[in-house]
Design brief:
The structure holds 2 protein chains of 2 kinds. Chain A is elongated, with a radius of gyration of 33 Å. By secondary structure, chain A is α+β, with helices and mostly antiparallel strands. In chain A, strands 1, 2, 3, 4, 5, 6, 7 and 8 form an 8-stranded antiparallel β-sheet that branches. A 7-stranded mixed β-sheet of chain A has the order 9-21-20-19-10-17-18, sandwiched between helices. In chain A, strand 1 and strand 2 form a beta hairpin. Chain A contains 25 helices and 21 strands. The termini of chain A are far apart. By secondary structure, chain B is mostly helical. Chain B has 17 helices and 6 strands. A two-stranded antiparallel sheet of chain B has the order 1-2. Chain B has a two-stranded antiparallel ribbon with strand order 3-4. In chain B, a hairpin with a 5-residue loop joins strand 3 and strand 4. In chain B, helix 3 runs antiparallel to helix 4, helix 3 runs antiparallel to helix 6 and helix 6 packs parallel to helix 16. The longest helix of chain B is centred in the last third of the chain and has 37 residues. The relative contact order of chain B is 0.13. Classes of the chains: A alpha+beta, B mainly alpha. Chains A and B meet through helix 8, helix 21, helix 22 and helix 25 of A and helix 13, helix 14, helix 15 and helix 17 of B.
């Protein structure tokens, strides 16, 4: 939000509307295994078997190579007329390896499909509309919205759908953006200010605007984000690359271990079965995380989309988890919109009720939020029946007089305005200034509130105290942020005194008072010089440098094109509290990766105990290794069923973990150590124990079936 | 009361207590602030460095530091090779030892080959340049005094100092220093200010216990039966001292500290076992001092100590059982005394075996080959992990690679891009750390597979079945971990073993030193992120558990199949035949 100009803030959503908005968002949120998407993903998971595609993922590529080798060996066994049990075993292995690859592809394809569906739903209303393009000659021509290109000018009138993303260059209109934000109240969009951005697919409700198209078909932010989740152009994020290196390194270690096992067994006079070695390798390499890694990344973007956030890169979502400092605008984020009247302070013996009545009547024609709050307070405190008598004449606020009020038919003149102006007026007219007046004004101002002086005739009769009201629950929210390790900085145009008092009340860590865009930029640079990552939200053109400088710059969709280009995310709801959600999505993304990697590697211990004894029990030289068969697999159903059980577990754990990969591991702001303990317990220790139980259960089932 | 049960407490407790003051002192002496460089005691190493033409301490970045390390070691290699090759022409050879190349060997078919075998020199030089001291020869039989002192002893001082120097450089990088220091000066400081004073004290104490220190030739003695016996002596005390203190392990005599002239009394035994682990422990204390994060260093120290105590306990437990071979025989059974010295006993031997393999020292006071299978598994496992205090400098660097891996995974699990000591761990660092971790299993599994699958291995083992496999596995593990202890039994002095283990020694040493320097170099340039409550803590028990878990899991997963085919199969089959 610009800090120089006090542009009117759109109506803050009352609680019911907020709840409705969340509800709408949730209905748009997809079911995890939406049948249509599952079908799409299933088909795609076969197409993704293309080795050129698989090579992007070294772990799963290795599985695919293992599958091909096993299949060749199985075919060889059939032609050579091997024992039926050998052929069945090898074919079963080949099928399981193929399934492992397909499950991985399915996870990725499903995340992709969900992302696309999510994005599509955000622009569901953007049909092919008729646009009235203004030609260079000045006349308007009707064209299809798909023909619009960046830089075209279009005129849109009440009742028409805005044909493309653009920036208003002329006029003002109320726009229904419910199609993308889910918020039913219309918003004002106007040329020149910081709220000049409009989105294609939304509807103009009143007035007429001329806008310049900022994105042709397929170029909008939404289109860019769809491209980000689509396989072809998806780039690995830095953290994803680092993790892939770890997974590749583990795969190489296990490749060495399994490859070395063959000659090692030769020492004992044992010739090991190649398909079994491939099975061991596939069990050991981190297939679980390898299969889900891409899906986790895409799901992070899906979650951002579900929160009506358009990220311009996968990296942006990831970096959000690292943010150390949040720059939050005071108005709309920390406090409820504008100041509100909280107290009537009568002077000179006037009853409080009378002051309230006078102030409220004087405010009847006042449409500012402050004015409305005065009426509300008066109604609420004294149950006044407020009707302006016929013949009342309202005096509107002007920049010259800096006061407003009413002249009643009975001759009384009520005015309200800033204390200095009012004092001057009263003094010049020789009116009465109560003794405690100046002290009270100073006392109110020093507490960060705003005094408003009320006069009747020429005399000062009282003061209205206007205060910034903190949003309910904001203190708790900040406490949560602090638990997450974030510093919250309040940005406000108020003077330092007012800013300090609100900062204290809200419990923020620091504030920037009388903030200019330059001051914001300087603050961000200062924080970054100290090694911190900064996130901020903004909408105005003069916010653009700060948005570009911040590590996470979230531009409001209502903001100017410059701001939207400068930031690395766009918030369709234009909701300043969205920053907090952004950080949580980022953290969740990294946590899910870490947790599933740990789980995947911890699983290997049990697989060793399943496969290694099974490999050797049938050979006399090492039959004593049966003692390592802790799960009693080879003893109950033979060596091959033990190996198959491990491979089956290894394959089905992938689809079983898809929900965690797509929804993300729950983030709790409990501090890093507690979080680590929790995840280590669930995914580390759990990862060691779960496969022992799972493999045993599968083996029992196999033995029952065969 | 059997006092030997107190031995492990002395052997681990005393060096722990001494490591704290020594570590602090090392931090002060080895990493002096700019204004104290070249002043006071630092003048001595400074003087040595100036002999080589340095005027002022160099400000090396990681590349220059790594190149200096490699160049210096390459010249060490050439020089030592020349000395061993020409030892018969050089002075200080009172017993007239011939050239080492004339050793001869038996090939896989059992045919004796006499004459030229440069492979043994290659192996010996690799072994001493890498601070390993795997010996495929027997010192007192084959080396002249000049070779012992000029070739071996000199390397025993310099190579641990090289490891320590690299450790200093890496810590400076982690700390965010602009440059990593001067390799030559750091090495000289390590030799002059740490290793020489400590080994002088130890050598004197050993002489007091009866260890010989002389330049005279072998002593001729007449035994009770009247036979004549030649007793090899020499500058033993000096070499034993630095062999213990410098995680070297290569003894003057073939049987190492099991030899009565290297380790004559229980007192010399306790002194020597303390000396093995003292400097490696102190170096972790120094690390904490230098990065000004003692809690993090304490976590690392704690994880290492936990591994050591666990290893020692298992080894002691195993060796307190009588040998299965003696069971059912009409003899008194006690602890497993096969291959152990009566003057040290089973507990001290098992304790020593754990400490010497935890630290990549490799000196022995008993034959590990004769341990029970599980007892023999302990030294092998500790070398496979290779992070338990381990070689001076090198052990810390190995552990650092695991710390980076653990930090990466744990960092993700707390929802942040992983940071270590305030520096972001990214793809570049992860790549190098994983490469460093990967080399160790590659060398061990690859080497063992090669020798187990071909005739080279089976023909040289002393025992059939799994135990023979363990001998091969142990040799490669010891070489890759730069430990140098032998499972013995293995007829390893032939060109195949000499070349293979020589190559493994070099690959086990230098990448493990250079890769961490590169990581430190990258990290030193990164901005330090101030910690917040959302930052992963590396100084608490949770991280300690994470680190221990990472080390054990990666170790178990990399080596379990090999271990199963060796010591575990050995154990299970012995258990099966002797119910």
């Amino acid at each position: 939000m610009s800090l120089l100009t006090h542009t009117p803030i759109p109506e803050r959503t009352p609680p019911e509307a907020q709840a409705m908005k969340i509800q709408r968002r949730q209905t748009r949120r997809l079911k995890l295994f939406e049948p249509a998407l599952v079908q799409m993903a299933t088909v795609r998971s076969f197409a993704m078997l293309d080795p050129r595609n698989m090579a992007r993922n070294p772990v799963m590529f290795l599985v695919e190579v293992g599958w091909v080798l096993t299949s060749i060996i199985a075919v060889g066994s059939i032609t050579a007329g091997a024992a039926a049990s050998t052929i069945v075993y090898q074919i079963a292995l080949a099928i399981l390896l193929l399934l492992t690859v397909l499950f991985a592809n399915f996870a990725e394809a499903l995340a992709e499909a969900r992302g696309k569906a999510q994005a599509q739903s955000l622009r569901a209303t953007r049909q092919d509309t008729i646009a009235r393009r203004i030609e260079p000659s000045g006349e308007s021509v009707e064209v299809s919205s798909t023909e619009l290109r960046t830089g075209d000018r279009v005129v849109v009138e009440a009742g028409q759908v805005i044909p493309a993303d653009g920036e208003i260059i002329e006029g003002l209109a109320s726009v229904d953006e419910s199609a993308i934000t889910g918020e039913s109240a219309p918003v004002i969009r106007e040329a020149g200010g910081d709220r000049s951005g409009v989105t294609g697919g939304t509807r103009v409700l009143s007035d007429r605007i001329i806008l310049e198209v900022t994105a042709g078909p397929g170029e909008s932010f939404l289109d860019r984000m769809i491209a980000l989740v689509e396989g072809a152009s998806r780039q690995k994020t830095p953290n994803e690359i680092a993790l892939t290196i770890i997974l590749a390194a583990f795969s190489i270690i296990f490749l060495i271990v399994t490859a070395a096992l063959y000659p090692m067994a030769l020492y004992h006079g044992i010739r090991l079965d190649i398909p079994t070695l491939i099975a061991l390798l596939v069990c050991l390499i981190p297939t679980t995380i390898g299969a889900l890694l891409a899906a986790i990344g895409i799901a992070g973007m899906d979650r951002a989309l579900a929160a009506n956030l358009i990220a311009k890169s996968g990296k942006a979502v990831e970096v959000a988890g690292d943010v150390d400092t949040l720059l939050l605008d005071k108005t709309g984020t920390i406090t409820l919109g504008n100041r509100r009247a909280t107290l009537f302070m009568p002077m000179g013996g006037l009853p409080e009720r009378e002051l309230a009545r006078m102030a409220a009547i004087a405010s009847l024609a006042d449409t500012t939020p402050e004015g409305k709050s005065i009426i509300e307070l008066a109604r609420h405190s004294f149950e006044l029946d407020l009707m302006a008598p016929d013949g009342s004449r309202f005096i509107e606020f002007t920049a010259q007089t800096r006061m407003s009020g009413v002249d009643l038919p009975d001759g009384s003149r009520i005015r309200k305005g800033a204390p200095d102006t009012m004092t001057e007026m009263v003094r010049s007219r020789g009116g009465r200034i109560p003794d405690a007046y100046q002290e009270t004004v100073d006392a109110i101002a020093s507490k960060g509130a705003t005094p408003l002086t009320v006069t009747s005739g020429d005399d000062i009769v009282g003061i209205i105290k206007l205060e910034d009201i903190l949003k309910p629950g904001i203190r708790e929210r900040f406490a949560r942020l602090r638990q997450m390790g974030l510093r919250v900085v309040m940005v406000t145009g108020d003077n330092p005194l007012t800013a300090r008092s609100i900062a204290q009340e809200a419990g923020v860590d620091d504030f920037i008072a009388q903030a200019t865009p330059e001051a914001k930029l300087a603050y961000i640079r200062k924080e970054q010089a100290g090694g911190k990552l900064v996130a901020m939200m903004g909408d105005g053109t003069n916010d653009a440098p700060a948005l570009a400088q911040a590590d996470i710059g979230v531009a409001m969709n209502s903001g100017t094109q410059a701001a939207k280009e400068a930031g690395n995310m766009v918030d369709l709801d234009s909701d300043p509290t969205k920053l907090i959600e952004v950080v949580e999505i980022g953290k969740q993304l990294l946590m899910t990766r870490g947790a599933l990697t740990t789980f995947s590697i911890a699983n290997d211990l049990a697989k060793y105990f399943a496969v290694i004894p099974a490999m050797f029990v049938d050979f006399k030289a090492l039959a004593s290794l049966r003692a390592l068969d802790l799960m009693g697999l080879a003893t109950s159903g033979g060596a091959q069923s033990a190996i198959l059980s491990a491979v089956i577990f290894n394959a089905i754990i992938i689809p079983m973990l898809i929900p965690i990969a797509l929804k993300g591991v729950t983030y709790r702001p409990v501090g890093a150590s507690a979080l680590l303990r929790r995840n280590l317990l669930y995914f580390g220790l759990g990862g060691v124990i779960a496969p022992f139980l799972g493999i045993k259960a599968i083996d029992v089932l196999i033995d029952l079936v065969l | 009361m059997d006092w030997s049960f107190f031995h492990p407490f002395w052997a681990i407790g005393v060096p722990m207590a001494l490591s704290i003051p020594l570590g602090r002192l090392m931090a002060r002496l080895l990493d002096p602030p700019a204004e104290r460089v070249g002043r006071g005691v630092d003048a001595v190493p400074m003087f040595l460095v100036r002999l080589f033409g340095h005027r002022e301490p160099a400000a090396m970045d990681w590349r220059r530091y790594a190149i200096a390390l490699l160049a210096f070691n390459a010249s060490l290699f050439v020089l030592s090779f020349a000395i061993l090759w020409a030892q018969n022409l050089l002075p200080l050879n009172p017993d007239g030892k011939g050239p080492l190349t004339a050793l001869g060997y038996k090939d896989a078919a059992g045919v004796q080959h006499d004459g030229a075998d440069t492979a043994v020199i290659f192996n010996t030089v690799c072994s001493f340049v890498t601070n390993t001291n795997l010996q495929h020869y027997s010192g007192e039989q084959h080396l002249s005094y000049f070779s012992q002192l000029g070739g071996i002893l000199w390397l025993q001082f310099v190579t641990p100092a090289c490891g320590l120097a690299v450790m200093l450089a890496v810590i400076r990088g982690l700390r965010g220093d602009k440059h990593l220091g001067d390799f030559y000066l750091d090495t000289a400081r390590g030799v002059v200010l740490v290793l020489i004073p400590l080994s002088t004290v130890l050598a004197l104490a050993l002489v007091a216990n009866g260890v010989p220190m002389t330049f005279d030739g072998a002593v001729k003695a007449r035994t009770l039966e009247g036979a004549e016996q030649t007793i090899a002596v020499g500058p033993v005390a000096a070499e034993v001292a630095i062999k213990q203190l410098g995680t070297n392990g290569g003894g003057f005599f073939g049987p190492n500290s099991a030899h009565p002239l290297e380790n004559p009394t229980p007192w010399s035994n306790i002194l020597e076992v303390i000396a093995i682990i003292l400097v490696p422990m102190a170096s972790i204390v120094m690390f904490g001092r230098m990065i000004r994060d003692r809690a993090h260093a304490a976590v690392v120290y704690g994880v290492m100590t936990a591994l050591l105590v666990a290893g020692a306990s298992i080894a002691i437990w195993s060796e307190l059982h009588p040998s299965p071979a003696a069971e059912g025989l009409p003899v008194a059974t006690g602890t497993n005394m096969e291959g152990k010295e009566v003057r040290t006993g089973a507990v001290a031997a098992a304790t020593w075996s754990a400490i010497t393999t935890a630290t990549s020292n490799g000196s022995v006071n008993a034959m590990h080959d004769s341990f029970q299978p599980i007892g023999g598994l302990v030294p092998m496992s500790l070398m496979m992990l290779n992070v338990d205090f381990s070689g001076i400098g090198a052990g810390f660097l190995n552990m650092l690679m695991y710390v980076i891996t653990a930090v990466f995974l744990a960092g993700l699990m707390v929802g942040r891009t992983p940071e270590y000591l305030g520096k972001k761990i990214e793809a570049k660092e992860v790549k190098l750390a994983m490469l460093a971790i990967l080399i160790h299993p590659l060398l061990i599994c690859g080497g063992t597979a090669l020798f187990a699958g071909t005739a080279w291995g089976p023909a040289t083992v002393a025992n059939p079945g799994p135990h023979g496999f363990s001998e091969i596995l142990y040799e490669f593990t010891s070489a890759s971990a730069n430990n140098g202890s032998g499972f013995e039994g293995l007829a390893d002095n032939n060109p195949y073993w000499n070349v293979a283990t020589g190559v493994v020694l070099l690959l086990g040493r230098f990448p493990a030193l250079v890769l961490p320097v590169a990581i430190a170099g990258f990290l030193s340039h990164k901005k330090r992120v101030p910690p917040s409550t959302g930052t992963l803590r590396t100084d608490d028990l949770t991280f300690g558990a994470m680190l221990l878990g990472t080390v054990l899991l990666v170790g178990a997963l990399s080596f379990m199949p090999a271990v199963v085919l060796g010591p575990i199969a050995d154990h299970l089959s012995t258990a099966a035949t002797n119910p």
